[in-house]
Amino acid sequence: MHQKQTRKLAITALFVAIFLLQTFIPNIGYIRIFPALPAITTVPLTVAIYAILLGPKSGAVFGLFWGLVRLFQAYTQPGDVVSLLLFQNVFIAVVPSVLAGLFPGLVAQFFKDKSEKMQEIGYVLAGVITSLTNTAFVILLTSLLFMNQTAFFASHMGHFSSNTPLIWILLTALGFNGLVEAIFTAIVTPIIATPLQKIMHRIHF
């Protein structure tokens, strides 16, 4: 048991280090294509793989860590005005991140005892779900919490009329980011997670 906990701690430390590099080194974890809009993030890939390896509970805790760092960044070094407004709200910063860590772990757990091919399909789904969960809940919570600030978002997220529903503005402006993130995470997750899982089985983790 002690050896297993030591391995888990070592894996967590490694993933935290990777996450911090993604977060604080420009254009590694957050890639900015459109200056006014939130960056496309590769962080969901790290979260998905960690949750696949260590399970949904650990994934949710890692997601919580991501959310708290995202909240901290919004106050100390916001990349754009929209991110500043969105992620200075603790619910928008934390809730999507926690769920994005929980769900891929649950998906991987469901496919755990299936064939190797089915497990790889599970990893693809876990990657997609991680990214889409983050994007979907950011959009949903923002549309609920800032429903009276449509004019602000319309002026900062593209050429929208102030009468445009906020959720439509968010879907249009953030949907591209979410789609790119989901495709990237879906492709890369099984490439990395499959050999890592095999290694962990060999060491009886």
Question: Helix and strand layout, with pairings?
Answer:
Elements: H1 2-24, E1 30-31, E2 40-41, H2 43-54, H3 56-76, H4 81-87, H5 90-110, H6 116-145, H7 150-156, H8 166-202
Antiparallel strand pairs: 1-2
Walk me through the structure.
The chain is mostly helical and 205 residues long. It has one domain: Arp2/3 complex 21 kDa subunit ARPC3 (Orthogonal Bundle). Helices cover 77% and strands 2% of the residues. It has helices at residues 2-24, 43-54, 56-76, 81-87, 90-110, 116-145, 150-156, 166-202, and strands at 30-31, 40-41. A two-stranded antiparallel sheet has the order 1-2. The longest helix is centred in the last third of the chain and has 37 residues, at 166-202. The chain is elongated, with a radius of gyration of 18 Å. The mean pLDDT is 86.
Q: What tags apply to this protein structure?
A:
205 residues, mainly alpha, Arp2/3 complex 21 kDa subunit ARPC3, two-stranded antiparallel ribbon, 77% helix, 2% strand, elongated
